[in-house]
Amino acid sequence: MVYLDLTQPRFFDISDTIRRRQRHHGEFWEFETFLSELYDTLRAIRMVMDIEGTIYVHADQIVSHYVKVIMDEIFCQAYYQDEIILKHRSNHTSLFRYTMSDYFTFSGYLKDANVWQFTNSEALLERIIKASSNEGMLVADFFGGSGVTAAVANRLGRRFIHGDIGINSIQTARERLVAADASFTRLEVNDGINLFRNPQQTNDKLLELTGVSRNTQLDSFWAGSINDSAVGMVPVYLPDFLPGKHPMLDEAFLSQLVHGKLGVLPDGTQKVIVYYVDSIPKEKREAFMREQNLHINIEVEFLDLKPKLDLVVVSDEADYTLREVQPKGQMFPVWQLTMNSFVSDRVLQKINAVNEMRYAQYLKKLKDYRDHIEVNLQKGKKEPTFTRLQISDDGLETIEWISLDCEEADINAPWHSSVEVKIDKTGFVIRNGKKTNTLWDGTIATDDNTHKPLRLKIRNICGDETKYALS
User: If pLDDT is split at 50, 70 and 90, which confidence band does 12 have?
Assistant: First the structure.
């Protein structure tokens, strides 16, 4: 079973002039971009759902009719089961239920009425999870937010998947699940979406790494071209990492490629290269090209972009010391890691951007003050001043969270947090999810010396995480 909540405040904000989609990490999306992203997300979800699965999508009055049209196309109108109206204090929202086939789990728990009084998210989720899944089944929420779906599923004896792009969501959900004694594994999907502060930087860097040059002979679908000594000019497609772009390489993309783009290439084009991050299985891709591609004189080479994306990531720099120490008052020694310094390129860029903005505001206020200096002096107002935001030489205040893994040495393996420290906004330590009255001193230590830490993970205050192998 899948549940998606499109009504959360973190997603949608209505203004007088434009409807925008707002992600948890603060990026704003045009309404059309939101619909495009939702379409791609639902297509990807359908690809991994079981034939007996059910999906619920919760939408408000503003987007519900758009959602219904998209759901009809992707999940097929024939498998639309019902729309449940959820009555709130001053308005109502819609809960759409679709299945993957005529064979699906259903307890009849929903049939008492098509209009429900909405009380809270937990009560709603308990009702639909009981209706469309049995104990031991899998419940997924890919806009997971604070982890309510995962927590309710766990309480009802279901397995769960919580997914979200926001690091705050992952941390909040993790703390909720830890408090509920839930058993789970945290996995990172390194698909290269958040590679640079500005997605355009990623696009530009990929041009450099792939050797692609801009080509005015080609339309904007193509990133550019390379020169091949054997076949000449080769158009190259690169995924666009700007918000709302980054299409998946699926049947819809392939149809656009073979029916709309290959046929209008410059005369003499013999080959094109298509890079991808996410793709349908290779067998399905090859079958589509055999059946649909009429331009058999043009070779289409598909290349996985992820190996090159590994070269784009800018890692934070950490200097640390790991040693065995004997804490006062403890019987056994422990492994203690001391942070000597920490430098984050992204944090520095963010601070510089804030300083530039504040400096521009300062100049404006200063001009206004001096333009009316006599009045301001009579009122006793002082001239505006500007103080630049700065970080310390060691940069440790830019660390939000730090963790040690004592079980796995492979830098790319799933993370196991043997011990972790979160530093709150006032500098106090939250160790393994428990608040303390201790200010962080730049260290993190294991409970004993049984297992030496093998990996270190640090999250900076912008939410970026970097892993380090400990020798």
Answer: very low
Choose among 76, 311, 98, 114: nearest CA to 208: 311
Least confident of 129-143, 293-307, 388-402: 293-307
Alpha carbon 315 to chain centroid, angstroms: 18
Q: What is the pLDDT of residues 25-35, one digit of tens each?
A: 334 445 676 78
Structure tokens at 186: 């945290």
Q: Which tokens go with 455?
A: 């990996």
pTM, two decimals, is: 0.52
DSSP element (H, E) containing 75: helix 64-75
Residue 135 and residue 421: Cα distance in Å, rounded? Answer: 34
How far apart (Å, rounded) are the C-alpha atoms in residues 406 and 272? 47
Taking each continuous run of H as one helix and of E as one strand, the counts in the chain are: 11, 23
Sheet with 19-22: list strands edge to edge: 12-14, 19-22, 28-30
Phi, psi at 98, each rounded to 5° = -125, 155
Q: Classify strands 80-87 and 115-117 as parallel, antiparallel or unpaired.
A: parallel
Write b or e for each residue in 15-39: b if 16 or more Cβ atoms lie within 10 A of its Cβ, otherwise e.
eeeeebbbbbeeeebebebbbbbbb
Tokens of 451: 């297992």
Provide CB contacts within 8 A for 135, sequence distance 6+: 156, 157, 158
What's the rounded Cα separation, in Å, for the pair 402 and 344?
A: 14
Strand runs labelled E in 33-87: 54-59, 80-87
> What are the E-state strand segments in 118-240?
138-141, 159-162, 224-228, 232-237
| Amino acid identity, position 15 | S
What single-letter DSSP state applies at residue 442? S
In this structure, what token pair is assigned to residue 252? 């819809």
105/99 Cα distance (integer angstroms): 9
Indicate the helix (H) or strand (E) that contains 5.
strand 2-5
The alpha helices in 156-232, defined as continuous H runs, are: 167-179, 199-210
DSSP string, 363-395: HHHHHHHHHTHHHHHHTTPPPP--------SS-
- Sheet of 115-117, strands arranged across: 115-117, 80-87, 92-99, 54-59, 2-5, 138-141, 159-162
Detail the DSSP E strand segments found in 243-394.
271-276, 299-304, 317-325, 334-343
Sheet containing 334-343: order of strands: 317-325, 334-343, 443-445
List, as one string, the DSSP characters of 18-45: -EEEE-TTS-EEEHHHHHHHHHHHHHHH
Which DSSP string corresponds to 412-436?
A: TSPP--SEEEEE-TTSEEEETTEEE
